[in-house]
Write a structure and sequence with these properties.
Length: about 650
């Protein structure tokens, strides 16, 4: 008998090996119809997977993250089938699931236009009604090449060579007369894909941008019910109103310029002021917690990155100045991270155990060669600023210092109002990864991951495990967050590194007089400032908390004769450190109030005859509405308390 431990702890027994799909039918046909994928001993598997030994067995439906991904992945195949039916000469690229749906890249003679999406969408609905079942099969290298040559799929041939060189299985899925190279998993048939919406067609590149192989990408989403799709589309319309890429430009937080380059935003005075406020707060808070401020170069010779390992593991993501392969000439690279620079502070002189922990912090400008298709507003850019830090510690200090890093990150998230929006991922290595992605031995990785697991479990942190998401030198805790469209990115990270110190010869004299290698914690406190600004604009729909708002108060004189009092009051408030502007134009008060509301200014001070005579102000709050006239001192005290407490 084979014993299956279900999610509720109950045990189901089967007499012989059988596909997961058949086991689910035995549990209930309703569950089978809803099932998208299964989790076997914690690993997501295709419903076609044969269960032949005792295991933990969990059925995942569309309600789960992995279920949605599987459903949307199958929808991308359905879209590819529709495209091939309508445009037989189209060549297939890739078609993964995304945060809210899927996309597929095609090479076509004429790029797809919005009008084409209606035809493709209609064909998808027709094919879904046919209810084609998906059949998985594997081929040898030669068989796979022959099949794709017959279908004239050049990009699939390239992928076959790539996967085969890694020793990976060459698996395919067939639905009707459509066949695609794919690792899966997939739902059992296309029939559950009841509601489809193709949302966008854009350009894309196959491989690196510089290779210049252009593709046409179609984005879409799909749901088991029309009502679910309608709800999603409604949410997306609401999200557009909060999208920082639109709202941030309308409110003059940032802009981009084509001849400067993609992923290189210009922070306008408002955006720069918010980031300056965040930066000063973080630097002061880190100093209070024992961090020492550093300032290191923006670039280095390649030799530094060779020592750290970034040249081998991160070179494709770096901006390189010079010929990287010409060893006879100097070659520099803009820094993608600060760690190897900050190590030089430790290495500046001989160290003892008394110097540790050494907590180094820096507001670091970094440069990473992001793909053009990945960049979005301020969320993902090629130049960004980060609250970066490295703690050089004795091994016995690891637990306390890691907890301190997490406590700082949580404090920052709670203060800016994002704590409830994040999730935690314990990013681990994949020992089966054939790409030489990781350094160190299995024993070193098990030690580092074991140490992190103990810390996280002791804290009682609720986290997911991300296999093959670790840094090349160690595991990490990634604090994840989604933008208004559901796209997930890492906001803050805390990493354990037991390896790189040895590369740089970083040693300290321990209590016993012997030389020891320190451990290193790589961490951020609030992460990337540009990304944080984007998320704050979306979170608060542009109405930032008073302490962060680039303009905290706008003083609105009703008539020109009230301007002197307005400017006098503004000067008084600026002397107290408040960010105040005066709208002294001759316009009526109505348009002034309307403009201040559009600009999302938290407070308006309205000044008329009575206010000038009584030395008062009438206050309008974005949160509380219009308040009674009050003495200037009371109004300032109210705002100052809100700023000082960093109220949200």
């Amino acid at each position: 008998m084979i014993k299956l431990t279900l999610k509720d702890g109950s045990v189901k027994e089967i007499e012989q090996a059988m596909p997961a799909s058949e086991i689910i039918k035995g549990i209930g046909m309703g569950l089978y119809k809803a099932a998208c994928v299964v989790k076997i001993n914690g690993e997501v598997k295709d419903l076609r997977t044969v269960i032949d030994s005792d295991c933990e067995f969990e059925v995942l439906t569309f309600d789960s993250k992995q279920g949605k991904e599987t459903f949307w992945h199958t929808a991308s195949h359905l879209m590819a089938q529709a495209v091939k039916n309508l445009y037989p000469d189209a060549k297939l690229g890739r078609g993964p699931a995304t945060e809210n749906g899927f996309y597929y890249d095609f090479q076509v003679e004429k790029p797809f236009a919005p009008a084409d999406l209606e035809k493709i969408q209609a064909e998808m609905k027709r094919l879904a009604k046919e209810g084609y079942e998906l059949e998985r099969f594997e081929l040898s290298h030669d068989e796979a090449v022959k099949l794709m040559q017959e279908k004239n799929e050049d990009f699939k041939l390239e992928l076959i060579e790539k996967h085969d060189s890694k020793g990976e299985k060459l698996s395919f899925y067939r639905q009707g007369d459509f066949v695609d190279l794919c690792a899966g998993p997939h739902i059992m048939s296309v029939a559950p894909i009841k509601a489809v919406k193709l949302t966008q067609c854009t350009g894309a590149y196959w491989g690196k941008v510089e290779d210049g192989i252009q593709m046409s990408r179609i984005y879409g989403t799909a749901y088991p019910k029309a009502s679910m799709l309608e709800e999603h589309l409604k949410q997306m319309e609401e999200a557009k109103l909060r999208d920082h890429n639109k709202l941030g430009r309308e409110l003059d937080y940032f802009t981009t310029v084509d001849y400067i380059g993609q992923g290189l935003p210009i922070l306008l005075p408002k955006g720069a002021k918010v980031i300056q406020t965040l930066q000063r707060w973080i630097e002061d808070e880190e100093y209070r917690r024992g961090y020492q401020l550093t300032k290191t170069p923006f670039m280095s010779k390649r030799e530094l990155y060779k020592i750290s390992g970034h040249w081998d593991h991160y070179r494709d993501g770096m901006f390189i100045l010079g010929d990287p392969d010409d060893e006879t000439k100097e070659c520099f690279a803009l820094r993608p991270m600060t760690c190897p620079f900050q190590y030089q502070v430790f290495l500046n002189r001989k160290r003892s155990y008394r110097d540790l922990p050494m907590r180094l912090g820096e507001t670091s400008t970094l440069f990473r060669k992001e793909d053009s298709g990945e960049m979005h507003g301020l969320i993902r850019v090629r130049q960004f600023t980060i609250s970066e830090g490295h703690l050089i510690i004795r091994p016995e200090q690891l637990e306390d210092e890691f907890k301190g890093c997490l406590a700082l990150a949580k404090y920052c998230l709670e203060t800016i109002g994002l704590a409830e929006d994040v999730s935690y991922r314990f990013s681990q290595w994949d020992p089966a990864n054939p790409n030489n992605k990781y350094e160190g031995t299995a024993e070193q990785w098990e030690e580092a991951q074991g140490a992190m697991k103990k810390i996280l479990d002791d804290i009682g942190l609720d986290y997911e495990i991300g296999i093959d998401e670790a840094a090349f030198y160690g595991p990490k805790l990634d604090i994840q967050i989604k933008n208004v469209f559901g796209k997930e990115d890492t906001l803050i990270t805390i990493q354990i590194d037991m390896q790189i110190a040895k590369k740089f010869g970083m040693e300290y004299v321990d209590k016993d007089g012997k030389m020891k290698m320190p451990y290193i914690i790589h961490r951020t406190s609030v992460g990337c400032y540009e990304r944080t600004l984007a998320l704050l604009i979306e979170k608060y729909a542009g109405v930032l908390p008073l302490w962060l708002a680039p303009e905290q108060v706008r003083i609105l004189p009703i008539k020109p004769e009230h301007n002197d009092y307005a400017y006098e009051l503004a000067e008084e408030m600026r002397d107290l450190g408040m960010r105040v502007e005066v709208d002294g134009e001759d316009d009526n008060i109505g348009p002034k109030i309307k403009q201040a509301r559009f600009d999302r200014v938290p407070y308006m001070f309205i000044i008329g005859d009575n206010e000038v005579k009584d030395r008062t102000v009438t206050v309008r709050s974005r949160k509380e509405g219009e308040l009674p006239a009050m003495p200037v001192a009371d109004a300032i005290a109210k705002l100052k308390e809100e700023i000082d407490t960093k109220a949200k």
